[in-house]
């Protein structure tokens, strides 16, 4: 078992090839002496640290300067838009969510065709490359992080013979990563032992702390019908909100139920909190982006290093059919892994005065060598998104045992390749829609309103927003984002 967290200790064939390619790229770097790039990022360490690492080598290779400007997550959209709408050149590179691309698209420069003509381009998984980096037929952004929700669980607990025997005696089946949400809650109940400072799970619940993406992951299992793609959030023929249908109601009731098996104070937990909670050995499992896996595997940050298992997020054999207004039952559990957030992206505002240097920096930041280094660094916020990331098992042995690495990479790749993978919502006015969502969702989680009332309130406000933005325009944008043809 390798526990060396230094990338230099890895002698992997795939990584050697990436390093050679990176060296060649550095030798061919143009001279940007005297150019200063202002790069917008979320306050670190997540994501900002990946920028800082790449910026250091880019500066050395090109003579240019990178000034990384950090803002709290919630301030990013308004900071970026305020500058771009005024044609202000304050930012040469921005780092943002794919869901924001529809609102940002009028103010972004198109990616140069030369960046889409090499092996590094083909190396990006198609879900990110072809679905999330393009808007209105143009490639406007470059993925720098692969994001989806997956399950992490404690191998030491799940593989313990005594725990296995006790679980089977109580529930009648073998203890293993949950295939369904019903199993998820039975496992969470089994491991919730406050007297031992152990709880079943951890999820993010606080407003502004990536809350609604956790809710969406529950909902995907009950609303992302395989026969009706694109119907999870809205009716893809009328743009009528689906968020208050029985599938969403079941998801919210279960999401709220997770609080019963989470550590005290979890109502105020964000996604960063649940990673440290898992790494601290306080929970048996959680679901999160891939950061829980890399942080949990790092002995300098974790008490459970060597025992981090990974699995595709639970699914359901019952999914709400919006066409028939009834539950459809499937012979087997349908997995609908959710592309929560969809990965951080980078782009160049049209107002930038350093377009060539900005796109070169983005290419440098996301090349196979630098992106792999970032993905291997716990706390960078960068998760796998290149095919080479998933295939280089030797590189991942720098932080994982072989079993951990195979599970982690298999889960990440398997989620992306799943037939019923669920994409995040991407429409103009995203901030408006999600602001309404978070307000009502927080009320429901706090017990201030009943779940159905909260969902009805969200649906009513979403209808108003859709009319304000233009129903036909929103419908066209929604269908395009879901990969559906125009009506």
Give a short synopsis of this structure.
With 487 residues, the chain is an alpha/beta fold.
Strand content: 5-15%
Largest sheet: 5 strands, mixed
Which architecture of the largest domain per CATH?
3-Layer(aba) Sandwich
**Spatial sequence of strands, sheet with the most strands:** 2-1-3-13-6
Polypeptide structure, described:
- The chain has 487 residues and is α/β, with parallel strands linked by helices.
- It has two domains: 7-147 and 342-417, D-Maltodextrin-Binding Protein, domain 2 (3-Layer(aba) Sandwich), CATH 3.40.190; 150-340, 3-Layer(aba) Sandwich (D-Maltodextrin-Binding Protein, domain 2).
- 44% of the residues lie in helices and 12% in strands.
- The protein has 21 helices and 14 strands.
- The longest helix is centred in the C-terminal third of the chain and has 19 residues, at 451-469.
- The relative contact order is 0.18.
- Mean pLDDT is 92; it is low at 1-24.
Features of the shown structure:
487 residues; alpha/beta; D-Maltodextrin-Binding Protein, domain 2; five-stranded mixed β-sheet; three-stranded antiparallel β-sheet; 14 strands; disordered N terminus
